[in-house]
Design goal:
Blueprint: H1 7-35, H2 40-76, H3 80-116, H4 120-133, H5 136-152, H6 157-179, H7 189-214, H8 230-262, H9 266-302, H10 309-333, H11 335-339, H12 346-361, H13 363-378, H14 382-406, H15 417-436
């Protein structure tokens, strides 16, 4: 008899994801913290370059998430040999996709960024970062598939160790390449990108070694791979094409958000990047619990118990708030404590405090919004999640135009109100779908 996942079982799946996300996002935090001591131009450019890279990365990550949903469903159905086929065929496909995106970036990015960015200094720093960072697609796509595999089979502890290795590598390599230590030249923002790429390579090497030693490769038919099978990719794409679009859209709108702020000034962009990095600290637990919801919902559906889905999601939501609320309290009690991680410039610190307050409070909407949205994805209705995300992004873009570009607020804090609009719309549409739509018998 199927029993709804207990808090302990939910935490067993979610905490390694959370720890891995915390450590993985130390890459972004490290880049921001180090570059905050290089200059405001580099600090602002790293926001644009980092989000631009993430938009490209999310195409592959969306594909891996579709694979994760499919592997989780097969795990619930006890069809273990199908999981290995999905994993290996999807990895091969993503390597080809990385090569394509790398080539397109070389051709299109300089023109596109010159069109979007006003400041010549920020444009030059952004392209310098991307010239190195784009090579990381090959390694980050492979890592995304390993993550999808381990989350899909609910064996997530490996994610923690791997993320720690990657983060420590990134901190050391960033320090060496940004500031020019141990005989290396000081590369500034280019060094941050190079350090991130090499740390992702180290991450992939560890995943491969661990999987060969610790995973029952016969159980998952890992060595049955003999040739590329388009039928498997088509099956994955039936689920993942929507998640690819779904994950790409919010990041590209996030890029537009930073471009809009760049039009207000270099100082405003630097402040927005600092606050974005602080926001990452909050979004990590939200993302971890949302990924857990997606996996456990898919497992429940595979086991034939769709009636448990709403209760699973509500329980996960409550647990997420238990993590988020203490972090909110920390920000309001000691705001400068977090900001000093990123810069020792007192003007930047004082200019960031109000923006950080506004940012933190929208997580009251982001927690249920993200978890209900990933619940919809976990049911296998990824086309629906794409429609929800597309409509939400449209409303968000309108809000950016009106609030930031039309009214051009003097204080960056007012710009963050567009996030309230985004999460309110996403929450409403996702909740209505779970409440009203017929998703209980969805087959994938």
């Amino acid at each position: 008899m199927f029993v709804m996942f207990t808090r302990k079982e939910i935490w067993t799946v979610s905490y390694p994801i959370l720890i891995s996300l915390v450590v993985q996002n130390l890459i972004n935090i490290t880049d921001t913290a180090f570059l905050g001591r290089v200059g405001e131009v580099e600090l602002g450019a790293s926001a644009l370059a980092g989000v631009y890279y993430m938009a490209v990365y999310m195409i592959g990550f969306g594909f891996s998430t579709g694979s994760q949903i499919l592997m989780a469903r097969r795990n619930g159905e006890k069809r273990f040999k199908d999981i290995g086929s999905i994993m290996l065929q999807s990895t091969f496909f993503l390597i080809l996709l990385a090569a394509l995106l790398w080539g397109l970036n070389d051709f299109c990015s300089p023109w596109f960024l010159r069109l979007m960015i006003n400041s010549k200094e920020i444009y030059n720093a952004t392209t310098e970062y991307l010239d190195y960072r784009i090579y990381g697609l090959f390694f980050s796509f492979i890592s995304a598939m390993f993550r999808a595999f381990y989350v899909g089979i609910t064996k997530t502890r490996i994610l923690t160790v791997n993320a720690i290795i990657m983060a420590v590598s990134n901190i050391i390599l960033n320090y060496i390449f940004i500031f020019g230590k141990f005989g290396c030249p000081a590369m500034g923002i280019g060094g941050a990108a190079l350090g991130s790429v090499l740390s992702e390579l180290i991450s992939v090497i560890y995943y491969i070694l661990y999987t060969n030693v610790k995973v029952d490769t016969k159980k998952y038919a890992f060595f049955d791979f003999t040739h590329f099978d388009p039928k498997v990719i088509v099956r994955v794409l039936n689920v993942s094409i929507w998640t690819m679009i779904q994950f790409f859209i919010p990041i590209i709108t996030w890029f537009v958000f930073f471009v809009a702020i760049e039009h207000l000034g270099e100082r405003q962009l630097a402040i927005a990047n600092i606050v974005r990095s602080v926001s990452t600290i909050f979004f990590m637990p939200v993302n971890a619990f949302a990924a857990t919801a997606c996996t456990l919902v898919s497992n429940a559906m595979g086991a034939g118990h769709p009636d448990e889905v709403p209760r699973i999601s509500l329980r996960i939501m409550k647990m997420c708030y238990m993590v988020i609320l203490p972090l909110m309290l920390l920000v309001f009690l000691w705001p400068s404590l977090l900001l000093r991680i990123y810069t020792d410039n007192q003007e930047l610190i004082q200019g960031s405090i109000l923006s950080m307050y506004v940012m933190v409070l929208y997580y009251f909407l982001a927690v249920p919004g993200s978890i209900w949205f990933h619940t919809v994805a976990g049911t296998g209705n990824t086309r629906t999640t794409m429609v929800i995300e597309t409509f939400t992004a449209f409303v968000y873009m309108v809000a950016i135009y009106v609030i930031i570009l039309l009214f051009r607020p003097a204080n960056v804090a007012l710009c963050w109100f567009v996030e309230y609009i985004y999460w309110a719309v996403l929450l409403l549409l996702s909740w209505l779908y779970i409440k009203k739509a017929r998703w209980q018998n969805k087959k994938i």
